[in-house]
Amino acid sequence: MGIKQTLTCFARQLIVTNADALRETLIATDADALCETACIKREGRRIEADGFQNGGNMYLLSIVCVIIITVVNVWMVGGSFFQLFDVISFLFLFLMFIPLLIAGGLFKDFNNAFRLGIGKRKAGNLMELKRAKEAMSLAIKSIIADAGFCVVLQEIILFSNAESFEALRPSIGISFITFFYALGMVLFLLPIQARLNVKMQEFISEKE
Asked: In what helix (H) or strand (E) does residue 72 lie, and over which residues does it extend?
């Protein structure tokens, strides 16, 4: 009986010792895993912040490049940069473009698309990104459609009242300024649409 009790006590002590060692190992492993996860998240936030900053800088750089290319092209053909300014044509685009966004119920999402696309704001859910992308897509289509509508309407009126083609030349050039503005706006909106599409794919991948 004495030997059996000794063996039993020894076995219990061995089990307790192994359990304590296993518990300490698990705690250490969990701590290491948590530390590694925190480091990965911190590194991910840093990379994401750098990506946002670089994306915003490149977006501004692209705007500057478009302006420079426009000025150079105007200078090469011997024109004046001020010939491209037409307040009425610019107003035509906005008076038709903004109401279409409001009618589609996406005006707030259009504003949100800039914060999500080139800002530091992070989307709360996938639907927010989808609505922002849809608003940007509607904006691009609306701008092109509005410009085409305005140009065709102006050309119809000009050709209907024209006495000679020579008299039409200045008016035709002015009528195409609306389309020029529309293409410029689309150039600025396309990168934002692309970034929203990428963010949607990343959001879906993170949830899988």
From this structure: helix 2-76
Q: In this structure, which long-range contacts are made by residues 103-111, counting pairs with CB atoms below 8 Å and at least 24 apart in sequence?
A: 104/135, 104/138, 106/131, 106/134, 106/135, 106/138, 107/135, 109/134, 109/135, 110/135, 110/136, 110/138, 110/139
Distance CA 74, CA 177 (A): 13
pLDDT per residue over 145-162, tens digit each?
999 998 888 888 888 877
DSSP code of residue 84 = G
- Name the burial class of residue 56, with classes exposed (0-12), middle (13-18) and buried (19+) by CB atoms within 10 angstroms of its CB: middle
Q: What is the pLDDT of residues 12-47, one digit of tens each?
A: 554 545 555 555 665 655 555 555 544 544 544 554
Report yes or no on whether pTM surpasses 0.70: no
